[in-house]
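A reminder from the course coordinator: this example appears on the midterm review sheet, so study it carefully.

Given structure:
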């Protein structure tokens, strides 16, 4: 086998080894499920995605409250997430019953689907 073929094979093996066990971007939400009206809460979205590298990575994550986007993080090849598992937080003041939806997206495989949390008001 020629050195060029071996070099090309090794190059592709290294580049795509991070995507060999890749999956869709998945999220979970950490926030209280019951609060008093007017309470400021911290909503934490935990993101899991195997294979974050410059070719294959989570490219966005958002949080919505009652259908309105309250936070969004964009990623790119030059601005990848810091790890396969990472979190982001946002503050939100609850003024009534609230539905929180969060979702993340892989630039190659898509999303595992949104996470939903309902916050009740006392």
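Designed residues:
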């Amino acid at each position: 086998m020629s050195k060029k073929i071996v070099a090309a094979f090794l190059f592709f093996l290294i580049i795509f080894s991070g995507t060999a066990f890749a999956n869709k971007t998945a999220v979970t939400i950490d926030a209280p499920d019951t609060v008093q009206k007017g309470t400021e809460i911290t909503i934490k979205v935990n993101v899991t995605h195997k294979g974050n590298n410059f070719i294959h990575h989570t490219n966005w994550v958002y949080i919505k409250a009652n259908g309105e986007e309250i936070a969004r993080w964009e990623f790119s090849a030059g601005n990848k997430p810091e790890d396969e598992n990472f979190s982001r937080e946002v503050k939100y003041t609850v003024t009534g019953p609230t539905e929180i939806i969060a979702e993340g997206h892989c630039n190659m495989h898509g999303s595992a689907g949104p996470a939903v949390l309902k916050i009740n008001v006392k």
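The chain has a mean pLDDT of 89. Residues 66 and 99 are 5 Å apart (CA to CA).
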